[in-house]
Specification:
The protein is mostly helical. It has 12 helices and no strands. Helix 7 (107-119) packs parallel to helix 9. The radius of gyration is 25 Å and the shape is elongated. The termini are far apart.
């Protein structure tokens, strides 16, 4: 018998919105005693632990959720986010793929997968994931910035600046986006200045060595 009501869930969500995390924690733990496999209770409890900066406890709750409700996409996606925070990026990527099998259009899942792939030093896969994130949620500033940062690290400043400009279109007052855009522009100018339009001259020391070798 399910003893958790819709009103209980609304109360828990309200406490989380007010950032009364201790109050939300007490309520959710009480509700969990009534129904240990309630999907929304587990999801909210994991979220509270995450917001309280208790990733180990959040992981435990989300793992329970994926076991009791393996078809619930949010459980896998939230587990992936927590595993990323714990530095377990390979496991995070696996969990996020499980979530994306059920919710292909979930921008947060793609964003978290991009973070995992970037941490695993797989830039091409990270780019693909971040591109999916902004495709499904163009307003996600962090995805634009993460995508642009990878392009900048690859010295593809044209694409990097395009991403940073896209972020500024969504949020014109973003100081981070403007700083990253200026940084990329400066790096591009520096790269152009370092390339002589007249080609490279032979090193003077090399010229002297050639002259010594030519003398009898």
């Amino acid at each position: 018998m399910n003893d958790v009501s819709d009103s209980d869930i609304r109360d828990a969500r309200g406490l989380i919105r007010k950032r009364d995390l201790n109050g939300a924690l007490r309520l959710l733990q009480k509700l969990l005693e009534a129904d240990s496999e309630h999907i929304e209770v587990l999801e909210l409890l994991g979220t509270v632990h995450f917001l309280r900066k208790r990733p180990e406890e959040a992981r435990s709750v989300f793992e329970t959720l994926t076991i009791t409700s393996p078809l619930h996409a949010s459980g896998w996606i939230n587990l992936g986010a927590v595993l990323n925070q714990l530095g377990e990026h390979k496991r995070a990527a696996e969990a996020l793929r499980r979530g994306l099998q059920r919710e292909r259009n979930n921008a947060e899942a793609w964003f978290n997968l991009g973070n995992a792939q970037k941490a695993l030093n797989l830039p091409s896969l990270a780019i693909s994931a971040f591109r999916e994130a902004v495709k499904h949620k163009p307003s996600m500033i962090d995805a634009h910035l993460s995508l642009g940062t990878i392009y900048a690290e690859m010295n593809n400043h044209g694409m990097a600046q395009q991403c940073f400009n896209n972020a500024l279109k969504q949020k014109p007052d973003s100081k981070k986006a403007r700083a990253l855009l200026e940084q990329s522009q400066n790096a591009q100018r520096h790269a152009r200045r370092s390339q002589s339009p007249f080609g490279r001259l032979v090193d003077e020391e090399e010229l002297a060595q050639r002259q010594d070798a030519a003398e009898p």
